[in-house]
Specification:
With 978 residues, this protein is mostly helical. It folds into 5 domains: 79-300, Beta Polymerase, domain 2; 308-455, Four Helix Bundle (Hemerythrin (Met), subunit A); 470-596, Four Helix Bundle (Hemerythrin (Met), subunit A), CATH 1.20.120.1510; 681-832, Beta Polymerase, domain 2 (2-Layer Sandwich), CATH 3.30.460.10; 838-974, Up-down Bundle (Four Helix Bundle (Hemerythrin (Met), subunit A)). Helix content is 59%, strand content 6%. Strands 2, 3, 5, 6 and 7 form a 5-stranded mixed sheet that branches. Helix 6 packs across helix 8 (129-159). Residues 1-457 are annotated as: Adenylyl removase.
Length: 978
């Protein structure tokens, strides 16, 4: 598309021109008038226009006026560069570079020089969108590759030449450019997303001390990032983002080709397929890079028609929409409705679905993909034309926003002067005229996006529209006669009309509603009658109204949520159904109204993701947050946990998740959170103190594990479960870390543990992540917060009580170092697998169980397992009473301790159900006994889950579970336990 002709410079921007000209003249001195007079009139006019629009250009010109003069005198200022010319110019600039400090200066000055030239040509309409993006991408390519080549040579001099074990050939890094860089679509102030790889393992040769290739390239990658990204007096060359690599920020900086292929084959997620579409080798070994991309192509482009891609992209879009709503980013022309991202999603949906078969779709630049979609008949040409024109308008707008201050932003400006600048740069006489055109294109893009990708559930009308609630308008909006209002409510189906009337009156006359802004009050007045129209359709309207009104009161002053529910009748119906089913869910949504977003899509709400998708989704969310923004990271973690816990609860209520899967999902959720929390805490500590080391001198990376006990260890978490954790490290306490503020390793890991607990337990506006119980660590509350594996092994072998070994049966590593995980599993197997005196074991297990039953069970349980008094008891404590959950757990733990020295397979799993399966397979229990215990255990836990969702303790009436209790107590006695 072509923009409107250049607009006249607004009067309000004239002072910017005057200041820029005056600064330029002062910097040049006496010769300035003569130099400027020699310029063509068009160049002088463009100088004023560019300086009026761009503070960045004004600042660069004032700092280095000779730079602009040289650009003009050499003819570079007003012409496009030929292919390869950008690289040749930088090569010449680096010819005399003799140090990394000099490299940083030269890269930044080169970037600033050409950034000025590119902005100049863009604002003067001397370059179209494609030319601007191409030159920005060429500049990034040149900076990354030439900086790499310079650093690689010096790195080899210092550490030797990396060589492959198999091939024996010299190894080079392969730098993949992702996103806009990969597609040659960089904007004026874009990050560059990179992934580092190298062909094969090996070590360096030719130096006094060899390094393995991994360490060589990690160090080299760190130096390359610093050369490009570090902010100096000259600014930066390019902001580098490495978070698209496997495992994100928590993964290694560099991967071998085999590791990359294995990761994408086994763990690659749909969003990574989307990202990998645009991957391109931008630096390093081009031939090896082509081989790598060929290896990864089957991951990106499936051989079959892959319509699951639309659902994946839809999920990504919903995540973005939620973030946009939470952060008030509707004015974001990239992420908001009808933004740049929606055009990208449309194109990439067709690429992911059909690209495996239609090779013409296997290309990177978006506009080329759109042209192919029209040519191949995937989309009507008229639709493609609108998408292309709208996309180009948005990209021009993006460049205008970023040209002002060389700042990475896609948000529409708030200041009046910047609004005028944007309108002026795009050729409009006023902001109003520009904004109307912008809204037109965003509307068209959003319409086309919905035709391709939007969830049909959003427009599904199977439940009809919301009732208008006309019959309730008078009751809500006018002073009512209480008797008449109570009667109307009773006639509509409320059992207790006066109480329902009183609840509505308390809301209407409460402080929250009385102090609402006019617009919010109008929204509430429109919403309540409609709400009542749906409440009376419920089986128990009294209960539903009681549970939903606290939410209405909580969001009264954030009325956007009322609009969300008004405009999404499916979401409101789901809300009422869930409130009717569970007061716990009603309370959660009232406390955290942002959870209402989860109700928009029934497919997502009632289908929680599997463990790998959970981890990938959380990592993707955290990747969009700057690494130094701890507050946002903590909020993101908490919202993620709340949202997925709601989805699990909703699925349990709807019957789409059986009991065992509920606990699986809740445990997977905790594991995903713990892995990210560990990496956040690790990065924080390393940034301050450096990396600790093991006794053999190797760096701990991280040399730390989080061990889960109890329910989380046994994969049996419930809705309100806390986490029983133990922290273990394998650092050398006598060796200090290698940072600017070194501390010994013991202190480092203690502080790391404290940091993890802080991240998990700190109360924010979204609550805390988890309650944490550390009392199962060696020596309990009196012991060290974090201990070494050697100390853990010594304690477990020499000092631990039998009950601590029982707890160890359910212990497993949840997050941390793979090497230390294997060592922990070895220690656990040795400790639990030793031969024991069975009489002493039975006595100790029985005594501990009796103490627990006496202290924690109901009165009917105090007589022990030989008493049938429970049949007349009023209550049954599902967990602690005789024949309950703990009896089954103790039997399983007893069996593991008694027989694992003969049957080590009993230690393979930590959950009771699979250990019981192992007992049957080993012939230690009959199939009937195992089935009785498993069925009872599942029944108890299902009842406990129901109690939790009803906000009730784990105690049920005493007339339940008699058969199960008898069976458990009988098997308890048959095992010789007392």
């Amino acid at each position: 598309m072509s923009l409107p002709p250049l607009a006249a410079l607004p009067v309000s921007l004239q002072p910017f021109v005057s200041r820029a000209q005056e600064t330029f003249r002062r910097a040049l001195g006496e010769s300035s008038e003569q130099m400027l007079a020699a310029w063509p009139a068009a160049r002088r006019e463009t100088f004023g226009r560019v300086c009026a629009a761009s503070d960045f250009v004004s600042e660069q010109v004032s700092r280095d006026p000779q730079m602009l003069l040289e650009l003009a005198d050499t003819g570079l200022l007003e012409r496009a560069l030929a292919p390869g010319e950008m690289r040749a110019l930088l090569t010449a600039a680096l010819a005399e570079c003799d140090s990394e400090d000099a490299l940083a200066v030269l890269l930044r000055r080169f970037r600033n020089r050409h950034q000025v030239r590119i902005v100049w040509r863009d604002l003067a309409r001397e370059a179209d969108l494609a030319q601007t993006c191409r030159e920005l991408s060429d500049m990034a390519d040149a900076c990354v590759d030439l900086a790499y080549q310079w650093l690689y040579a010096r790195h080899c001099e210092q550490f030797g030449v990396p060589t492959g074990n198999r091939s024996g050939r010299q190894q080079h890094l392969v730098v993949l450019g992702m996103g806009k860089l990969g597609a040659h679509e960089l904007n004026l102030s874009s990050d560059i997303d990179l992934i580092f790889g190298y062909p094969e393992g090996g070590e360096t040769v030719g130096a006094k001390r060899s390094l393995d290739n991994q360490e060589f390239f990690v160090r080299l990658g760190q130096r390359l990032i610093k050369a490009l990204d570090a902010i100096t007096v000259d600014g930066f060359a390019f902001r580098v983002d490495m978070r698209l690599r496997p495992y994100g920020s928590s993964g290694p900086l560099v991967f071998s080709f085999n590791a990359l292929e294995q990761y994408y084959q086994d763990q690659g997620r749909d969003w990574e397929r989307y990202a990998m579409i645009k991957a391109r080798v931008v630096a390093g070994d081009q031939q090896a890079g082509r081989e790598l991309l060929k290896m990864l192509r089957p991951f990106v482009y499936r051989r079959y028609l892959d319509f699951s891609a639309i659902e994946a992209l839809r999920g990504m879009k919903q995540l973005i929409q939620q973030e946009v709503r939470r952060k008030g980013m509707a004015g974001n022309i990239k992420l908001g409705a009808g933004g740049i991202r929606e055009v990208e999603f449309v194109a990439q949906a067709f690429q992911l679905i059909h690209g495996g078969r239609d090779l013409s779709l296997q290309q990177r630049p978006l506009l080329d993909v759109l042209a192919t979609l029209a040519a191949q008949g995937y989309l009507p040409p008229a639709a493609v034309d609108e998408l292309r024109e709208g996309y180009e308008f948005l990209r021009y707008t993006e460049h205008a926003l970023q040209a002002i201050a060389d700042r990475q932003t896609q948000m529409l400006p708030e200041s009046e002067v910047d609004c005028e600048r944007v309108a002026f740069m795009l050729g409009f006489d006023s902001w109003t005229e520009f904004h109307e055109r912008l809204l037109h294109w965003r509307g068209r893009i959003d319409w086309h996006f919905r035709q391709v990708i939007a969830d049909p559930d959003e427009d599904d009308s199977e439940d009809g529209e919301l009732p208008d609630g006309g019959e309730w308008l008078a009751l809500w909006q006018q002073d009512w006669d209480e008797d008449f209002a109570a009667g109307q409510l009773s006639e509509a189906g409320f059992r207790d009309g006066p109480t329902a009337c009183q609840r509505l009156a308390l809301l209407r006359d409460g402080k929250q509603v009385r102090t609402m802004q006019r617009l919010g009050r109008e929204r509430l007045d429109a919403f309540i009658p409609r709400l009542l129209g749906l409440v009376v359709e419920q089986d128990d309207p009294d209960l539903v109204l009681e549970r939903v009104l606290p939410l209405v009161e909580a969001v009264a002053r954030r009325s956007a949520y009322l609009v969300l529910l008004s405009e999404n009748p499916h979401a409101l119906r789901r809300l009422l159904e869930l409130c009717a089913a569970s007061p716990w869910i009603a309370e959660q949504i009232a406390r955290f109204p942002s959870l209402l977003d989860e109700l928009l899509n029934a497919g997502r709400l009632y289908s929680p993701p599997q463990a790998p998708e959970l981890a990938a989704e959380l990592r993707e969310r955290l990747m969009r947050i700057p690494e130094d923004d701890l507050e946002q990271q903590m909020e993101a973690l908490r919202h993620f946990k709340l949202a997925h816990r709601l989805r699990v609860a909703a699925s349990e209520i709807a019957g789409t998740l059986p009991l065992m899967k509920v606990s699986d999902y809740l445990t997977w959720l905790a594991e995903a959170v713990l892995k990210e929390v560990l990496m956040l805490a690790w990065r924080y500590m390393v940034a301050r103190h450096g990396v600790p080391r093991r006794s053999d001198g190797t760096p701990c990376d991280p040399g730390f594990v989080i061990v889960g006990y109890g329910k989380v260890g046994g994969i049996e978490l419930g809705h309100g479960s806390d986490l029983d954790l133990v922290f273990i490290h394998d650092g050398d306490p006598a060796v200090e870390t290698d940072g600017a503020k070194p501390i010994d390793s013991a202190q480092f890991f203690t502080r790391l543990g404290q940091r993890i607990i802080h991240l998990l337990t700190t109360q924010t506006t979204s609550g805390q992540l988890y309650e944490v119980d550390m009392r199962l660590r060696p020596s309990g509350a009196a012991g060290l917060l974090v201990g070494s594996l050697a100390a853990f092994e010594r304690y477990q072998s020499q000092e631990a009580w039998t009950w601590e070994h029982q707890a160890l049966v359910r212990a497993r590593v949840l997050a941390g170092c793979a090497r230390l995980t294997a060592d922990f599993e070895r220690v656990r197997a040795v400790v639990l697998g030793r031969a024991r005196d069975l009489d002493a074991l039975r006595r100790e297990v029985s005594e501990m169980r009796a103490k627990m039953r006496d202290n924690l069970g109901t009165r009917s349980s105090h007589a022990g397992v030989d008493d049938n008094a429970f049949e007349a008891a009023a209550e049954f404590n599902l967990k602690q009473d005789a024949g309950g959950i703990v009896d089954i757990e103790f039997m399983v733990q007893y069996a593991a301790l008694a027989w694992s020295h003969q049957h080590p397979e009993l230690l393979r799993y930590t959950d009771n159900i699979r250990i019981l399966d192992g007992l049957e397979q080993a012939g230690l229990m009959t199939g009937d006994e195992v089935r009785l215990l498993q069925d009872a255990y599942k029944a108890y836990r299902a009842a406990a889950h129901r109690q939790s969702l009803q906000k009730q303790p784990g105690v049920v009436s005493g007339d339940q579970f008699h058969d199960e209790r008898r069976a458990v107590m009988r098997i308890w006695r048959e095992l010789g336990l007392e």
